[in-house]
Amino acid sequence: DTEVTQTPKHLVMGMTNKKSLKCEQHMGHRAMYWYKQKAKKPPELMFVYSYEKLSINESVPSRFSPECPNSSLLNLHLHALQPEDSALYLCASSQHRLGGYNEQFFGPGTRLTVL
Amino acid sequence: DAKTTQPNSMESNEEEPVHLPCNHSTISGTDYIHWYRQLPSQGPEYVIHGLTSNVNNRMASLAIAEDRKSSTLILHRATLRDAAVYYCILRDGVNNQGGKLIFGQGTELSVKP
Q: Does residue A93 contact residue A31 with C-beta atoms inside 8 Å?
């Protein structure tokens, strides 16, 4: 199984809502990532988890809160978002071999619209 | 992280070879050259990577200049399914900063039947 799954596929939320995005992989990967992609732009890294611990936060606003409850799951909790946060949110995973190449496997993304 | 420069868009005819260029004049000795592509309405997918020597896999070939300041992704016979945005990315193979990928603007490849 070389698939990264993301739910939901689409999400519409108001600025006062709280919602969560979910990502799952069963490839035994110990590194997981969240990227944000605006329309017609390249993906931008948000967070990296290594062995279930947050290793990189690219200065992301606190209204985005990541969580890695176990080695297969990655969540992104959303609260008090702004309309400019509307984007495609991509999850990825990779092995965590030091000194080797770790190809990233991406999910199809969650299309988020903030009203 | 060293920067890459790619043309914004390219066109190809189906079943013809495609050469996608990438300039990376500030590449360091430990930077690997990676290519990912993103098909419409999908997440990016890995294509190929290399350090100094040319590389081939089932999807594509990667030709790296001798001075490593540029590289070319070669699709040997373009199909309609190859229409995508192609990203050339440099990543430090020693201090890989937790595996982060920094995407540039990419080249949007269109394939005509």
A: yes
